[in-house]
Amino acid sequence: MNILIIGGGGVVGQKLAASLATRGLLRGQPISRLVLADVVDPAPLAAPFEVQTTTCDIADPASVASVVTQDTQVIYLLAAIVSAHAEEDFEAGWRINMMGTLNVLERARTLGTKPVVIFTSSIAVYGGEVPDPIVDHTFLNPQTSYGAQKAVGELLINDYSRKGFVDGRGFRLPTISVRPGKPNRAASSFMSSILREPLNGQEAICPVDDDFPHYYLSPRKCVENLIKGAEIPEADLGQNRCMMMPGRMWTIRQLIDAMTAVAGPEPARLIKWEAQPDIQRIVKGWRFDMRPEKAIKLGLEADDSFEDNIRYYLEDDKPAP
Amino acid sequence: MNILIIGGGGVVGQKLAASLATRGLLRGQPISRLVLADVVDPAPLAAPFEVQTTTCDIADPASVASVVTQDTQVIYLLAAIVSAHAEEDFEAGWRINMMGTLNVLERARTLGTKPVVIFTSSIAVYGGEVPDPIVDHTFLNPQTSYGAQKAVGELLINDYSRKGFVDGRGFRLPTISVRPGKPNRAASSFMSSILREPLNGQEAICPVDDDFPHYYLSPRKCVENLIKGAEIPEADLGQNRCMMMPGRMWTIRQLIDAMTAVAGPEPARLIKWEAQPDIQRIVKGWRFDMRPEKAIKLGLEADDSFEDNIRYYLEDDKPAP
């Protein structure tokens, strides 16, 4: 089994690669090669199979052709310009998030190899005048360019799959928390920072009130779901291959209480509260009352409690002191 | 008021142009120029204002730039590769229907003039596992490339409008019947042919059973709605500028009965019944139980009866014997 992760240098890409290295199998077959591609050369990985790292600009069809090859059987398409970045740089967002997705699908179509393509969409596809709860047949009404680009990606994944050019599956990721590493340009970045930095003994800023509700998933469960997502039998996907990935709704207060329950009262004292209207304008348009019935039926899972998310961070990611 | 109709050589484009010529006004202002652009030079038009006809390939940004100019205030974007054609020619469908729409919007963004853009989407955006009735917040789940391309166009119209680059509005057209002229490559083409040809004394083939239900609008009402659609105040469009255009559900039997009620029993005898699985596969995935509440609230209208549709054809379109 030859696997390509586009966005293989990112947090989810690296964790997915590590999990594949541990498993050694995907879709019931031994993994023979894993290619990690990203805009900057991804970190290498120890694995019981061949691992290549390479740069790739998905906005460039020739660059895509260099990583999506005749023997590529599974493509994880995780690369994206994230939400606040796509809102600032309109052109880059459409070029990378829409045209980049199109380039990958066109390359697969041209090859005629029908690879499995796992596409990460986002709950940012929801917004505007749609009633709660968000169910599997709720209208995608994004109120950011990032959300619009992800919704276009879903339509492309579905149509290229319907025509048999790829075996696509898309998953609308909840906000991933606790996300390790540095803050990024996602508007949701603070939803990890306010936990990660205090757990590392550093201050962090919370730009919203503590009753702000949102929909979360741990990186560990996200990776498990992405692997399951590749393994769902094609026939079970029905007439829409894109679905919510399960998560859970918690308020900022519940996140902080979970951190305190696991790590004691000190970290919470490092959170500074500072309203940021630009961030609020984006994140308050997002939805949080989700019913991901299709994904749950297909075996995907949310976390059991946010205490788990905190523990996963401490076990998997907290830098050694 | 300078108006551009892209797709100005088509049935709807020509009727829209004629209606604008009669009115002389749009959005409360006198029309000073109307440009009709299409892949082949559109038929000219007598009007109390300047009318230009020109060719335009919307897949080519330079060609789009030649018709969308600094003084273009209203753009009707009607041009498309139709359903069965887009199903046969996958590349042409995406190139014209997605990239063509993108080219028009990008041209407007570059000019910085914020034209009003009226985009014709289609009820082909609906399909698959979504419950009836279809309401304003029903998931767009197209089961044809044409439907997918129209759904992408809606996302583009919404995001370019949200950013203030255009004042976009999109309307999901019901099947237009009785459509004058020749059959086209839309899978729905027979839904006019089985009335138009018999009303003109010619035979026609019906490829589905007479209990096949579908959602219809007359060309006359469609044009009225497209004019109203340009005139809706921007503030009334809310957080999703695309909506169903009102129509009504009738079965093939009801269409034929209406024809008989208006034109006597002879025309119906000219219909030959001949099942066509390729056409059935496309049209049976379409939806017909629609509740276009938003559009109705904004003043758009369906036909009162299919007898009206038959009468409109006889009054507006039937060729002289």
UniProtKB/TrEMBL annotation, chains A, B:
SUPFAM superfamilies: NAD(P)-binding Rossmann-fold domains. Residues 3-202 form the NAD-dependent epimerase/dehydratase domain. Keywords: Carbohydrate metabolism, NADP. CDD domains: Gne_like_SDR_e. Gene3D superfamilies: NAD(P)-binding Rossmann-like Domain, UDP-galactose 4-epimerase, domain 1. It comes from the Bacteria. InterPro entries: DenD, Epimerase_deHydtase, NAD(P)-bd_dom_sf. It holds the Pfam family Epimerase. This is Nucleoside-diphosphate-sugar epimerase.
